């Protein structure tokens, strides 16, 4: 499982780098076409909006993986070590449950509905289902990362044990 996790991490990291490079280029082209050429591109705003959605959602999965996500530990940090460990298991289980139920199941339903209704983006002319596909994909990534974190917690290893095995 560690090799699979390593490849998922590498793929996600490279995808996020590519998406960030793409959004920089798209926004730069929008500025140049609007202010230098005097003829703004009609597609760049929608491309930038779509890229921002994908970067935000996949970036959330990466932040969860690397422990860089926002977390409030005001109450849990005051608990004894055993209680902190149990609370970490409960909270990680809640994250996995949320990712599966809301992002994978709910996001999958949204993608399916968008394809069934044949919804198209206005400027790009692509199916909105392809744009919404980031929701179940992100949910799947967070669920996998949360599951690996739960395994580490159950084994009593550090939370980054999936990276070090």
Automatic annotation (TrEMBL):
Protein family according to the UniProt entry: Belongs to the TRAP transporter small permease family.
InterPro entries with a match to the protein in the record: DctQ, TRAP_DctQ
One Pfam family per UniProt: DctQ
Membrane association type: Multi-pass membrane protein
Name the UniProt record assigns to this protein: TRAP transporter small permease protein
Residues annotated as domain Tripartite ATP-independent periplasmic transporters DctQ component: 23-155
Residues passing through the membrane, by range: 12-32, 47-67, 88-110, 130-148
Protein keywords: Cell inner membrane, Cell membrane, Membrane, Transmembrane, Transmembrane helix, Transport
Superkingdom: Bacteria
Function (record text): Part of the tripartite ATP-independent periplasmic (TRAP) transport system.
Species in which this protein is naturally found: Rheinheimera marina
Self-association state and partner proteins as the record states: The complex comprises the extracytoplasmic solute receptor protein and the two transmembrane proteins.
Subcellular location: Cell inner membrane
């Amino acid at each position: 499982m560690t090799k699979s996790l390593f490849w998922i991490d590498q793929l996600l990291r490279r995808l996020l780098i590519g998406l960030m490079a793409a959004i920089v280029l798209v926004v730069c082209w929008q500025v140049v076409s609007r202010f230098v050429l005097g003829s703004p591109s009609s597609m760049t705003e929608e491309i930038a909006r779509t890229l921002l959605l994908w970067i935000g959602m996949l970036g959330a999965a990466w932040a969860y993986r690397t422990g860089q996500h926002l977390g409030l530990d005001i109450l849990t940090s005051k608990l004894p070590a055993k209680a902190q460990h149990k609370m970490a298991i409960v909270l990680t289980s809640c994250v996995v449950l949320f990712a599966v139920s809301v992002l994978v199941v709910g996001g999958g339903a949204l993608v399916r509905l968008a394809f069934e209704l044949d919804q198209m983006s206005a400027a790009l002319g692509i199916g909105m289902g392809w744009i919404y596909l980031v929701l179940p994909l992100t949910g799947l990534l967070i669920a996998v990362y949360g599951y690996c974190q739960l395994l580490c917690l159950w084994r009593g290893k550090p939370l980054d044990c999936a990276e070090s095995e």
